[in-house]
Design brief:
By secondary structure, the protein is of the alpha/beta class. Helix 1 packs across helix 3, helix 9 packs parallel to helix 14 and helix 15 runs antiparallel to helix 16. The longest helix is centred in the N-terminal third of the chain and has 23 residues. It starts with 9 loop residues before the first helix and ends with a helix.
Amino acid sequence: MRTTPGAPGAARKHRALTRTLAGLALALLVTATGGSCGAGDRTGPDDGKGQALTPGTLRVLASSELSDMEPVLRSARTATGVDVRLTYTGTLDAVEQIASGAAEQAYDAVWLSSNDYLRLRPDTAKRITGETPVMVSPVALGVRPAAVARLGWDPAKVTWSQLHRAVADGRLTYGMTDPVRSNSGFSALVSVASGLSGAQAALTEADVRRATPKLKEFFTGQKLTSGSSGWLATAYGRRDDVDALVNYESVLLSSFRSGELTVIRPTDGVVTADYPLTLLTSARPEAKEAAGRLTTYLRTPDVQRRITESTLRRPVVAGVRPASALARDQRRELPFPGSRAVADGLLDAYDNTLRRPSRTVYVLDTSGSMSGERLERLKAALAELTGDFRDREEVTLMPFGSAVKRGEVRTHTVDPASPRAALDAIKADAGRLSASGGTAIYSSVQEAYRFLGKAPGDTFTSVVLMTDGENTDGDPASAFDAFYRSLPAGQRRTPVFPILFGDSDRGELGHIADLTGGRLFDATRGSLDGAFEEIRGYQ
C-alpha cells in the first residue's frame, strides 16, 4: 500500500500540519497587529497563542456540522458564563492537529461527531480526556419515496442485506460522503462492513475479508461522493438518477423537507455518532472547569429537549423524548473496528479497491501571468498531490494558455500492480509545465468535457480548474453556458471544481461551479496544495 488513508502518509501529514501551522501563525500575526480573524475574537489578555482569554472562555475545535448548535451555545453563555469559541474543521485535519500536538497550541477541547477513531490511535488517544456525549445520531439512508415503493419495502424492516441485494441487482443507487475525510462517511462505511459481515463483536480483518465481495457489489451503486454533507445534499437535489443518500439521520432530516426522503435505519444495526465534547489533556484548569459547567448545562432535560427539536439529533439523557420527527424504535449498535489496523485497512480497501475509480481532468492555467513563483507553486502542489492518487484512478493534466496546449496534454492511470510508474510520470509532467499565452478559461473547460465524454465508464468524473486570472481568450461565458446546456444529461453530471488563485475572478469561477454543480475552492486565503487536497474528497 502506498499510503493508509485513515493514517495519512508522510506527504499528506506534511500538508495537513503545514496548513495548521500556517493558520496558527496567521492568528498570532493578526493578534500582534490588532486585527480581527472573525466574530469569535475578543480584546483582552493574550495567552501568547493568538487568543484573547477571559474567564469562562472555552476554545473548541469542532466538526462543521455543529454550526447548528450555535444558538444553544449562545444561551449557554448567558446561563453559565462559558464563552464557547468554535473553530470548524474537517475530521482529517482535526485528527492530524491533535496527533501532531498543534491543537494544544490553540484549543482546550475538541467536539467531533465521534471519538471512536481517535481512541484507536496512540498519538491522539493520549492527548484527549474527559469525553462527555451530548447527543446522538445514527447512520441512516434517506431514500426517495418512489424508490421505496418500487422496491416494495417496509421502511421499518429493511436490513443491510436487503440494501446490498437491491444495489447488486441494479435497483438502488446512492450518494455518500468520503470516509477518508468525513466522519459521517467513515461511520457509514463501518456500518455497511459490519452489517454485511455479520460481525457480533469488534470488527476484525477477517470480518472485512469476509464482507469484501458484498462490499464491492454495494459500492457499485455509489453515484455521488463528497467531502461534505452539505454539498452532497445539494448535488443529490440536482440528480434524478440517484435514489438515496447515506448519512447521519439528523443530516438527512435537516437537509430535506418532510416527505422528500424516507429515512431508513437498518434493523440489523447502525453505527451512531455521540458528539462527545472532549477536553485535551493540555487544557488550562479554568478551561476544564468551564467545560464541566457547559456539559452539565447541555445535559439538563430542558436543553436536551431544545437540542433534539432544533438539530434532530437524539437526546442522551433518560426521560427526554426524541423530537417528533424521530422514530422511537431502537436499533442495535454495530461493532466498531477493534484496532487501528482494521480501521485503516478498511479505509484503504475503500479507496483503492471497493469504490468506483475516478477520472479527473486538471485544467491548469499556464498563461504568461503564471510565470515565476505562481508556476512553481502549481508544480509543487501537483507533485505533493501525487501521493494522494488512488489505485485505478485516471489523471489528465490539461495545461492551457490562449488555448489548450494539446501537445502537452497527458493522461495516466494508476495501475494497482505498479502505481509508482504513473505517479512518477504525473510528477514529471507537472515539472515540465511552462508559462505562455493568454487565458482561455471557458474554451479549455469545454475541451475537458469533450475529453471525458470520449470514453464513458463507471467512474466518478470531475474537472478541476486552476487559474490565476480572468478569461482573455477563446469563448466567452455565454458560449460556455450554451455548450454546457447542450451536453447530454450524463455529461452534465460532471462537476467543475474551480480554484480561486492569484488574480482570478471570483464571479467567473463561482458561476462555473454553480452551473455545473461543483464547488469553488479558495487558495487566496490558504495554500494551493491545500485547495487541491480538499477537492480530493469530491473526486
